[in-house]
Amino acid sequence: MPQLRQNIITGDWVVIAPERAKRPSDFVTRDTVKQQTKEDCPFCTNSPEYKKRLKKFDTKNIWVIPNKYPAFVEIKTKKPILSYKVENDFYRARPSTGGHDVVVIKEHDTDLPHFSKEIWIELLETFDRRYEYFDKLCNVAYTMPIYNHGQAGGASIEHPHAQIFASNIIPNLITKEIHHTEKYFEHNGSCAFCELINHEKKFKKRIIFENKDFVAFTFYAARFPFEIWILPKEHQSRYENEAKRKYHTLADCLMDVFGKLNATLNDPPVNFFVHNLPNTISETDYYHWHIEIAPRVTGYGGYEMGSGNVIDVVTPEDTAKYLRDSSKKAKVWEGKENNLKKG
Length: 343
Ligand SMILES: [Zn+2]
Ligand SMILES: [Zn+2]
Ligand SMILES: [Zn+2]
Prior knowledge:
four-stranded antiparallel sheet, HIT family, subunit A, alpha+beta, disordered C terminus
């Protein structure tokens, strides 16, 4: 069973899940993304795996299975698992429970920048169904859908798939967002996310896409080149409460943004994730669900690792310009790639 351990100095949580990488050699020779053919791909619908695995559900374009090596072990319970174990009268730890799904896109020969609108809508509906499932049946504190694309994005199997992590803790980053936006609300009487949208719409320096329901922009205080946020324009603290018809406009937004990233950076490794209100908090005026997109084109150097502060090598105003111009397929970024390697 993986274990959650708390950093006694910062309060941050880490998951220790040795089942996921067993031998030291797994760290040394990080395999490239497995280039499976359709014949030996474990995620293709003609694989023995597809027939064998217990499916959570199976729709036209997607099938959902429990992860073989879960970071959070699924336990059906009505009670929150809150107790800590104190190790050697000192460290705080607890079993890492919640749930961990793999959301497999059935079509092997597609990938994130090329998903059809139909795939996107099914993916967004799947996130909604799993939010409800983990909240109602597993009593988790938090559920986070994520997507890894490309080797540097952490994808270990080439076949396109998302993952859903449900945990009995609130993730460190969400704790920070909640804390800071709650303070903002106390001081200003408004939602910091709503204000962020108003500000970006007013100055239009970083907006790369907008439709009637959603807006996407490069993030003012970006933690890496081309960090992008997508927010619903109307205040809504929970993803699950968003009207289903908005999946269409959200799909349009995601297709446009990933298309622009693909055109500008030539299919970069990338992650995206949904940030939502924890289940432990009822609907609020200060938190606003959103999607963050993290292209993985640079690594962190010593200062970033040591300080937690990031030195970004390109301005979000410039990255927005590159993305907006990408329809002209301007390869503006190519010459700059070498400058991205940090010392
Ligand atoms: Zn496959
Ligand atoms: Zn808001
Ligand atoms: Zn966030």
